[in-house]
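Researcher: Batch entry, complex prediction.
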Amino acid sequence: MTIKSEPFVVNVGPQHPSTHGVFRLRLTLDGEKIIDADMIMGYLHRSMEKLAEERTYTQNIPFTDRTDYLAAMTGNLAYVIAVEKLMNIEVPERAQFLRTIMAELQRIASHSMAIGIFANDCGAWQTPVMHMFRDREKILDLFEMACGARLTLNYMRIGGVSRDIPDEWMPQAHKLLKELPKRFAEYEDLLLSNEIIIARSRGVGVLTPEQAIAYSVSGPMLRGSGVAWDIRKADPYAAYDKLDFEIAVGTNGDCYDRFVIRLAELRQSLYMLEQALDMMPSGPVHQRLGTSTVQPGTQPIAPLAFRPPVGEAYGRIESPRGELGYYIVSDGGPSPFRFHIRSPSFINLTPLKLMAIGSTVADAIVILGSVDIVVGEVDR
Amino acid sequence: MAIILSGEWYDLRDLANPIRELIDALGAPDAVDYVLWSLIAALAILIWLVVSVIAFIWIERRLVALMQNRKGPNRVGPAGLLQPIADAIKLLLKEAITTRDADRILFWLAPIIVFIPTIVVFAVVPFGESMVLADLNVGVLFLIAVAGIMTPAVFIAGWSSNNKYALLAAMRAIAMLISYELIQVLALLAAVLFIGSMNLQAFVSWQDEYNTWLIFILPLPVVAYVIAGAVEINRSPMDLSEAESELAAGYHTEYGGIKFGFFYQAEYMAGFAIAATVTTLFLGGWTLWGLEEWIPGWIIFLGKLYAVFFLYIWSRGTLPRLRIDQLMAFAWKFMLPLMLVNALVIAVEVVVWEETGASRNVALPAIGAVNATLAVILVIGWARVLGHGSGLQRGYRATLTREIGKIYYTGAEVS
Amino acid sequence: MDSVDLEHFLVIGAILFGIGLYMSLAKRNFVGVLIGIELMFNGVNLTFISFSRFVESAEPLNGHIFVIFVITVAAAEAAVALALAVLLYRLRDTINVDQIDLLKW
Amino acid sequence: MEDTGTVVAFWILAALTVGAALSVAAVRNLIHSVVLLIVSFAGVAGLYITLSADFIAVVQILIYIGAIAILLIFAIVLTPRAGRLNQEGFMLLPALALAVLVAGTMIFVAFDTSWAISERDGFEETATAIGDLLLDKYALPFEIASVLLLSAIIGAILLVRPEGAEEGPE
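Model: C-alpha cells for the complex:
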C-alpha cells in the first residue's frame, strides 16, 4: 500500500545516537522510504595527514592511534610497515609475532564492539554492547600490561615494538584464550539465529560483488559480498604467512552477512592467537636503526629523528575494517613529504548511498551499523 | 454508587469510611462525603502509582544493569536507592524549553494528555475485594477505550514539537497503536466470551470460583495481549515510536525537564496499567487460591502486577527492535487471523460447554488442553504458511575458505 | 438548576447539531466539513440517548441500538471521507471545498 | 435526576462539551480544532454516563476518539500542501443563520412539547441488553451494518489505491 507523500528531508546526525560519532547522513524520505541519501563528512577532520608532514617519522606513530581509535594497534602496524618498507628494515621474529598477536587481539576487541553496536543499531538496547565490552575489557587489560595504555596504544615502533611483554602476560593471555570460546559460543547462540536480527538485517543493504569491487570496499564489507579477499592471506605481513586460518565469506552481500563474518572472524582470530602464542620465538623485539642514531638505555626505543632515503612506500594490512594502507613519500628529510591514509572506514562508507536508497530509515541505521565505521578514521 | 463496606482492616476504603461516618454525624450533606470518599480512594491510587514509578525507575535500571553486566545506579544513597529522587529533582529544576517553532499550546498539553489514560485505567481495576474505585459493568471495554486516548496524545506530542524525528515517530505510533488496538480488543474479546461479563471484578470472582486462572485456559489471548501491551507502552521490541537508535528519542525528542518527566512517568504508569489488566483478567487478580484470606488482596495483586511488569523489563534488556513494516505485518498478517480463529474457537467451546452441561472439573481442563494445543498448532502452522524459517528468515554461519579471490556470491535475496 | 431533565440534554444536542451544521456548511477545509458532520452525529446521538433514558417506552433500549448503528455508519463514513480527501488532494492538490467546483455549471 | 453529583456533573460536562464544540468552530488551526473536537467527544461520553448509558459512553470514547478523530488527523497529515487553516468560506453568514435557526427550532420544540416522561430510574446494565437486542430483534440491521463497514473498508482502500498499483504483495 502506497500513499504518495511529499519528499521529506531528515538529517541523521551530526548529533544522533546512531552515527557512531559526528557523521551526518541527510536522508530524503518518501514516507519512511529513502529516496536519496547524502553523506556529509568532515565534522571530525583534524588534518592528520598534513600534521604528519610536519613531524618526524617516530612522532607520527601516535597519530595513527587516533585515526581508528577502536583498533589503534592496526593503525600503528600499517604505518610502521610502510616506514619499514621505505627504509628496508628487517624486523626481528619475536617482534613479528608480537605484532601479529596484538593485531589479532585488537581485531577481536574491534569486532566485538562492531557486533555489539550492530545489534544496538538493530534496537537491542545496549545489552549486546555491554556483553561485548566484557571481552574487550580483558583484551584492553592485556594491552595495558604490554604497553601501559588501553585505547591509544602507541605500541609499534619502526623496526619492532616498543617493549617486550612482561612475564605475567603469557599466562593471562592463555587464560583469556580459554575463556573466549565460551563467550563466542554464547554470542552465536544469542545473535546468529535471533529472529529479529535476521528479520532486520537479511536482504537489507545488499552490495553485489561487482559493486563492492567497483567501490573498492574492503574487509568484512567485501567478504560479505562473497569475495574471498584478505590481505593477511593475499599479501602476508608480520607473521601471518606462518599461521593457518580461513577467510570467512558471505553469500548474499547483505547486512547479515557482514555481521556473521565478524562473528566467524572472532573464531579465526582466536585460532590464530592460539597458534601464535605457541609458536612465539624468543629474541629481541626491536631492530636498532643504525649505530649513529641509537639511544642509550635498556629499552629498545626507536630514535626520535632519522632520515629515510628518498622514495615512496605503501604499507597495507588487514585492519578489522578492511584494507588499511599508509602511503608515505620521503624526500630524504626527517619528516614525510607526503603522508596519506587509505582508511577503510571512509571507502567502505561510500556505497552507503547505493545500499540505502529504497530501504527505510530503520534499515539505513542497520546498514550504517553493518559498515562499522569509525568517524575518526573517516575524517582523519 | 453504593459504598461497599468491608470489615477488613487493610481496605483502603476503610480509611475513608470512618471519615464518612464522622461527617454523617456532623450532619453534612451527602455530596461532601461522596466527594471526600472518592478523593481519598483516588489519592491512594495516585500515591501508589507515583511511589511505584519511583521504585521501578530504580528497579528497572538495576535489573537491566544486571542483564547488561554492569552495576547500574549505585552512588546516590545506599545502593543508589535515592537515584530516582535525584533524577526527579533534576527534571523538576531543569528549564522547561519550548522550541521556537513548536505549537506552544499543544506542546504543553501533550504531556498532560498522555498522563490521563494511564491514570484513569486504574479506576476500574480491582485492587482488592472492595477496592475498586468504579465497579464498571463495561470495565473491559473501558480499558480498551481509555488506552485509545494514548493515540491522539502521542500524535499531539509528535506533531506539536515540529521536529522531523518526532513527526515520523508520531506517525509510526499512530499506525502501531491502531493496529495493535485491534489485537488487544480481540484478545480481550476471547476472555469476555469465556467469562460472559465485562466487569473486571466478575473476572476475578470467576477465576476464584473455578479455582483456576484464565491464562491456563486461554494461553493465546494472553500472549497476544502482552505483545499488544508492549506496543502500547513502547517497550522493546516494539519501541519504534521512540526508537533511540533511529529517531533520537521519537515523539518526545524535543521535550526536556519536567515535560519529559511526565512522558517518562506516563510510560511506566501505562506499563503498570497493562500489567494490572493482565493480572486481573488472566492471572486471578487479587486472589491466590485462598491465600487472600490471610494476606491482604492488594499485596497479592501488586505482587502479580510487578511480576508481569518484569516481563517488560526483561524484554527491554534483551530484544532487538522490529522495523515498522515488520511490526505491522506481524499484527495484520500473523496475529489478526490467529486471534479471529481463536475467538471463533472459544465461542464454539462456550456453546458446547453450555449444551453438554459438563462439570467444571471435566470441562475446564479439556478446554484448556484444546486451547493450548490449538495455540501451538496455529502459531507454528501459520508461521510455516507465512514462510517462516525459509528463505530470508533463515539464519546461517559464514562460509569459510582458503581460496583467495574466489567469489562466493550466490545472488542476493532482497527483502 | 437543582435537577437535570430531558430538556437540558435536548438543548445540548441541538447546540451541537447547530454547530455541526454551521461548520459543515461554512468551513472551507474538507476536514472542517467532516468535523461538522461528526458534531452533528454527536448531537443526534445525545438526543437519542436522552430520549431513551427519560421518555416512556416499552423498549427503552432502542435508542441505544440506534446510536450504535449511527456510530457504525459514522465510522464507515469517516473512512470513506478520508479516502475521498486523500484522493481529492492527489487529483487537485487541495482539499479546499471552494476550489473543488468541477460539477458547477 | 436530582442527586447533587449528577447535577454538578451535568453542568460541568455540558459546559465542557458546548464550549469545546464552539471552539472547534471558532479556532483557526485545524489541528487545534481536532484536539478540541476530542474534548467535545469526551464531554459527550460523560453526558452519556450521567444518562446511565455506560456502554454507549465507552463506545463513544472508543470509536469517536480512538478511531474517527485519528482518521481526521490522518486526513490532515496526508494532505501536507493543503492549508492548515480552518476558516470559513463565503457561506459564513447563510450557514450561521441556518444553524441558529435549526438549533433554535429544535430548542423551541424541546421546551414546547410535553414529553411523556417516564418515572423509571436509569438503566442498571446496558451492555447485555444491547447485545441481546442486537443479536435478536435487530439481527438483520446488525448484519447489514457489518456489510456496510466491510464495503466502506474496501471502498476506502480502492479509492486511495494509486493508479497502476502493482498487483499482489510486493
